[in-house]
Structures are given as C-alpha cells and as structure tokens.
Design brief:
With 389 residues, this protein is an alpha+beta fold. The chain has 2 domains: 147 residues, Creatine Amidinohydrolase, Chain A, domain 1, CATH 3.40.350; 233 residues, Creatinase/methionine aminopeptidase superfamily (Creatine Amidinohydrolase), CATH 3.90.230. Helices cover 30% and strands 21% of the residues. The chain has a 6-stranded mixed beta sheet. A 5-stranded antiparallel beta sheet has the order 16-15-17-20-21. The protein has a 4-stranded mixed beta sheet with strand order 10-11-14-22. Strand 12 and strand 13 form a beta hairpin. Helix 6 packs across helix 7 and helix 8 runs antiparallel to helix 9. It is elongated. It starts with a helix and ends with a strand.
C-alpha cells in the first residue's frame, strides 16, 4: 500500500466514524498530503463565465482542482484542463473540466446527504454540492485531515530532517558574512540566494533578519529598525527564516550581537538556549502536554534570572507544528490541551526583549520520538557575538 493509499484509507475510516458520506478538498496542503505528491497547494483560476454566461468574480476564489474522498470506494479528482498535465502523476487519475462545469462533474459520483469540506474554498465547494443536492449538509472537515497530518511518517520525517539540516547550513553561511556595514535587506538577500543554491523550491515565508540598534528609537519596538540601517557594533540581529524542500517546510532562528555584548545579554541568550535544550530533553511522548511547553521554557529562563525579559507572557505562545505548511495545528500555547505523540514535529521559538538594547530569539525544529524528543536543527547555540573587523 502506498503512502497515499494509507492516508486516504485512514481518512475514510474517520469519515465513517463521523457518519459522513464523503469529503471534498480543494488544492491545499491537505490535498497535497492525501495525494502524496509535490504540487502547488493552491492556484486561483482565472475569471471565467458561469453557466448563465456572466463573468463570475467568485471564480477568482475558486480552486483549480477538487479531490473527492468517499467514505468507501474510489476517490475522484476533477481539475481545470490546464492543470491536467501537472496532476498526471497523481495516484487518482485527474478528470478535466472547465470550472463552471465542476458541479456537473461532481453530480456524476457524489452520493449521500452529509459531507465534509476542507477549509480551502469551503463555501465555494458547499455551493457546488448544493446545486445538485440542495438538502445536503456540508460541515467543516479540515480537522479530520489535520489529525492525520500531525504524526509524520518515515518519509516525512526524512524530508523534514533534510530540510532542517540544509537550513542549519544556510544559517552558518549567512553568519560568516555578518559584518559591520551590511543592511537588513542585504542579509535577507543572502537568505534567499543561499536557499536557491541549496535547492529550495520556495521560501516558507518572508525571511527576516531583524536589526535592533541599542540606544536608538528602533530599540523601543520590536522590528522597528529602519530598513536602510547598517549593522554596527552594539546592533543585534534576530533571524526567523525557512524554506520549502521537497514540499515540506523548515523554520529556524538564531540571534547575534555585533561586537562584544554586555554580560547580561550574553547570559540572557545562554539562558534562552539552555531552557530550550532542557525543554527538549524533558519531553515524554504520551505524557507531555503542549500547554506545558511554554511553562517549561519560561520556568527555566526565570530560574536563570531572565523571566521578566520573556515575551508573550499572557498568551504563552511558544511555537507551532510544521510539515507541508510552515504553521500547522495544533499551535503551541498554554491554552491548547493536547499530549505530544511520537512522529509530531514542532517548532519552539522562545523570545526575549531587552527594551532599548536587544531583541533575541531562538527557534528549533523538534521531533517527538518513541523515547523522547530530539532537535532536528543543530546550528551552534554558543555563537552570539560577531566579529567587528
């Protein structure tokens, strides 16, 4: 049985448990997950005419393909003609139709009264079904696929591990080039260029090398440093960046200080890194709850004397799951009641803010195993001060 077949079969079991006749998914991360193929997760169609011949603005928010998963039996895949070739490798054979005839195509095989829809274009797909099944009940169903996506299989773990290693190496290359005079846009250009050279398919999000210049107005608000500001002694740089490798995301962060740093900043960064490592070492799969992760890091940082500098005190937000999407559910905060399971991969990104002086953050990709947890990112935790010559 292929990965796609296993994933679809697992979803069909969930549909049966929920007494749902089937699920519709537009091109999205969950769509990509179920088909186990690298394709663009979402493409908006061009403006087309509806069945009455009137140009439809709604078509701008319509997907280019729909996957229908029945609770039992074979799946069907409908796509616009210009996507048929790119979906030819799909384990479900694509059937080409123009967008204004998707409802007619679905009518041929969608049977039942109660269906689930993925989040992407949910309202649009609901309207399609109701064109030929006006009494159908279409309910939100993204959480069903998310429950499957939480635990990564061996293939996914291998891809995420490689993505983390490549991102580590890029951080090292960028850090070697951080010298006085470089600007934030120039730093971000390095992140983009090195990602392309490493074989990244895309950026996971806009890369950030956030400067904080001590003693200037920019040090009063996180991210307020002028874009044309140049790295100089006393300036700190906080990184947040990631890429898409083989269809899966990486997300990573480290911080640096240009020149010798005051002792309290060196100690604060060391405390942040030490707390991150202690949290990872303390995870017990099947026991540790997501809502406790923030507290585990915060307690250790407080013990080391820097609790007041930790950000997000009220919300307790410390990270997120990661996979095909850079931000996957469930989020890592003190309000989420969910026990960590083997196969989950999450990002922990604690941050500190020294008003008027420095903003610092670390971020690591963490894999939960049968025995505990390991960091997939291994870039130096000790390197903080940058040379000024």
């Amino acid at each position: 049985m292929t990965n796609s077949e296993r994933r679809i079969a697992a979803l069909q079991n969930l549909l049966a448990e929920e007494e749902l006749d089937g699920m519709l998914l537009a091109t999205s991360a969950s769509f990509v997950y179920l088909l186990d193929m690298a394709t663009l997760p979402f493409q908006r169609t061009s403006v087309t005419k509806n069945q009455r011949g009137i140009p439809s603005i709604e078509a701008l928010n319509a997907p280019d393909a729909i996957l229908y998963v029945p609770c039992d039996g074979a799946c069907r895949l409908i796509c616009v003609p210009w996507r048929e070739q790119s979906l030819a490798a799909s384990p479900v054979r694509p059937e080409a139709e123009f967008i204004d005839r998707f409802a007619d195509a679905l009518r041929r095989f969608v049977r039942g009264k109660r269906f689930a829809a993925g989040d992407c274009c949910a309202a649009w797909m609901t309207n399609l079904v109701k064109e030929f099944l006006p009494d159908a009940d279409v309910v939100p169903g993204e959480a069903l696929v998310e429950s499957l996506r939480r635990r990564k299989d061996e293939k996914e773990i291998a891809i995420l591990s490689r993505a983390a290693a490549l991102t580590d190496a890029i951080m090292d290359k960028v850090a070697e080039r951080l010298r006085p005079g470089i600007t934030s846009p120039e730093v971000e250009e390095l992140l983009v260029r090195f990602g392309i050279e490493a074989g990244a398919q895309d950026l996971a999000f806009g890369p950030a090398g956030m400067f904080t210049q001590a003693g200037t107005p920019s040090a009063q608000t996180i991210g307020a440093c002028p874009r044309d500001a140049r790295l100089a002694p006393g300036t700190s740089v906080a990184f947040d960046f990631g890429y898409i490798f083989d269809g899966y995301a990486s997300d990573f962060g480290r911080s640096f200080h240009c020149g010798p740093a005051p002792a309290h900043l060196r100690e604060g960064y060391a405390a942040l890194q030490a707390a991150q490592c202690r949290m990872i070492d303390s995870i017990v799969p099947g026991v540790t709850n997501i809502r406790d992760i923030d507290g585990m890091v915060r307690a250790e940082v407080t013990r080391l004397g820097f609790g007041e500098q930790m950000t997000n005190k009220d919300k307790g937000v410390i990270g997120h799951q990661i996979g095909i999407d850079v931000h996957e559910m469930p989020w890592m905060n003190k309000f989420v009641d969910f026990v960590l399971e083997p196969g989950m991969v999450f990002c922990s990104e604690p941050k500190m803010w020294f008003p008027g002086e420095c903003y610092m953050r670390v971020e690591d990709m963490v894999l939960v195993t049968e025995k505990g947890a390991v960091s997939l990112t291994h870039c130096s935790r000790d390197r903080f001060e940058l040379p000024v010559d």
